[in-house]
Amino acid sequence: MKAAMLRSALRRNISSTTAASSHILRRGFSSESAPERKVTILGAAGGIGQPLSLLMKLNPLVSKLALYDIAGTPGVAADVSHINTRSEVAGYASEEQLGQALEGSDIVIIPAGVPRKPGMTRDDLFKINAGIVKSLCEAIAKYSPEALVNMISNPVNSTVPIAAEVFKSKGVYDEKKLFGVTTLDVVRAKTFYAGKANANVAGVNVPVVGGHAGITILPLFSQASPQANLSDELIKALTKRTQDGGTEVVEAKAGKGSATLSMAYAGAIFADACLKGLNGVPDVVECSFVQSTVTELPFFASKVRLGRNGVEEVLGLGPLSDYEQQGLEALKPELKSSIEKGIAFVHGS
Known about the structure:
Blueprint: H1 2-12, H2 19-26, E1 38-42, H3 49-58, E2 64-69, H4 73-81, E3 88-93, H5 98-102, E4 107-110, H6 122-143, E5 148-151, H7 156-169, E6 178-180, H8 183-197, E7 208-210, E8 217-219, H9 232-243, H10 245-252, H11 261-278, E9 284-291, E10 299-307, E11 310-314, H12 322-348
Parallel strand pairs: 1-2, 1-4, 2-3, 4-5, 5-6
Antiparallel strand pairs: 7-8, 9-10, 10-11
């Protein structure tokens, strides 16, 4: 009963509600109607990786689920493999098995790395997680260069440029296939907005642009739907809470974790959108941190239309309020610095 409820909730919350996807949903994504798709999770035994592994096991678009971590993965794989859903599960531990985990992947999701702790900024994370991401991306370039890469490892503003530079150095970079997962910012913005607008959160949409840390996170509440007549002060408060959402969870967990469960949910939602795009479902749009010409910065988060090759189209920002325009200009220097830091790490290491 609980498993059925969880699967039902996941299906209800997928972002694309086109007629075509609704038709597929009614058919229950049976193995006869959905192509074979392999999803690999790198960092599957961690705080985000374990709930993400569970959620991807529940996704009926996945036929093979490969779980990799440096340790602990066989237990996670054995646990989720008992769930009576479509995908076959395999667990891989140690670097010797990384290639086997990656081979044939359609999507590689990377939540690997250390979590943020109280008093630790996303910049502090950089020194630890940059090396992990670099080595994993070198393996992706070798064993699954055609896969869509969903980067969760923080700081995303730097790890996505790191991945891009690694792929370029190996001659396999395709800007359409590299995504920074910023979906948690959207999830938070929807939740916080719905609470103040007295709206059903299931029907709320709020685009979030920029980056994935602090002031680089810019929710566009002026474009929220359904529209509510919220005061300027309330919009500013909602913006601040969205930007500080990660810190809110870190402090609430009092040093014993970060936003693992909500991040796993957001990661599963974005991976589901990528799978739909690969399978040809039309008009699948999500916000993501990608190579972009929307601003003068080389990477930027905005709405992206997903398709059979990954990014089909990077969409523009649309009309901004004066407050949002100010926020956009204010975030650019910090985001530029984070991007450059990632690029410099690859060329200096």
